[in-house]
Write a structure and sequence with these properties.
Mean pLDDT: 96
Order of helices and strands: EEEEEEEEEEEEEEEEEEEEEEEEEEEEE
Low-confidence stretches: none
CATH topology of the largest domain: Immunoglobulin-like
Largest sheet: 6 strands, mixed
CATH architecture of the largest domain: Sandwich
Structural class: mainly beta
Number of strands: 29
Distance between the termini: 99 Å
CATH class of the largest domain: Mainly Beta
Radius of gyration: 30 Å
Shape: rod-shaped
CATH superfamily of the largest domain: Immunoglobulins
């Protein structure tokens, strides 16, 4: 009886994976060889109904699988070699600990199954084309520093993309915090107010907001002097009242606390 292949698993993938052929009359370890394209491989396990082997290297595209038992060849099944994806850019490439969706660009995304963000975790993407997907990065846990640049690695049936450096990073930012304001009182237009805190990294703005609510007013002449310090001028248009001074960076807006207040009398 000629060998017969009923199915192969996987039907697409890359070298180094284990493939299993199922069928009938598939022979034994001493009698069976397998051809994948033009490459002949020796099974790691074989019986009359199942053959297992390691997929050898091959070019991206279609390859036919044929089992030969004592010189008699089976029917063929089609296997597709899939190249590992490449990641070329991420947009946006910065965000808070719990980011929104980002766009990832590259090649080989058609069969993407997941996207890894460094050691933070993985997420399931929405594939838009072979060169474009969207994905929501997994939330970041506790920070050991104010930022964490994570390699964005796309995983498909052909393997995992390689790190490419800054262009392929998504950088998580910890939330800034204000711990003190000196002086804490003054007139509208006061200059040289010192603000202390943490994670004043890539600050985009600093605002004054009445503690009783209302719109925020950008501070004047903000100068970040360190990760935990900055200076600013109080806008001359502000009315009397108590204001929260809040710092904004890609990690978000610092939480309003008593320590961030400035009083205009």
């Amino acid at each position: 009886m000629a060998p017969f292949i009923s199915s192969i698993s996987p039907t697409s993938g890359h070298s180094g994976q284990t493939m299993t052929i199922t069928g009938t009359g598939l022979g034994s370890l001493s009698t069976t060889k397998v051809n994948i394209g033009s490459t002949t491989v020796t099974p790691t396990a074989a019986s009359s109904t199942s053959v297992t082997f390691t997929i050898p290297p091959g070019c991206s595209g279609q390859a036919n699988i044929i089992a030969t038992v004592s010189g008699v060849s089976s029917n063929s099944k089609t296997f597709f070699y899939v190249a590992a994806p490449t990641c070329t850019s991420v947009n946006p490439n910065t965000g808070p600990a719990a980011p929104g969706a980002v766009d990832v660009f590259g090649t080989g995304f058609a069969t993407a199954t997941s996207v890894a963000f460094g050691t933070v975790g993985t997420a399931v993407p929405t594939v838009l084309s072979d060169g474009h997907l969207t994905v929501t990065p997994p939330p970041h846990g506790a920070f050991s520093d104010c930022t964490d640049a994570a390699d964005v690695l796309v995983i498909n049936t052909g393997g995992t993309s390689s790190p490419i450096g800054a262009q392929g990073h998504f950088t998580y930012y910890d939330l800034p915090a204000v711990t003190g304001v000196t002086p804490g009182t003054g007139a509208a237009g006061t200059t040289g107010v010192n603000v202390a805190g943490t994670c004043f990294v890539d600050v985009s703005s600093v605002t004054f907001t009445l503690t009783t609510g209302g719109p925020s007013t950008p501070a004047d002449n903000v100068n970040v002097t360190g990760v935990g310090s900055l200076t600013l001028d109080v806008p001359g248009t502000l009315a009397a009242g108590t204001y929260d001074i809040q710092v904004i960076n890609p990690g978000g807006t610092s939480t309003a606390v008593a320590a961030d207040q400035f009083v205009i009398s």
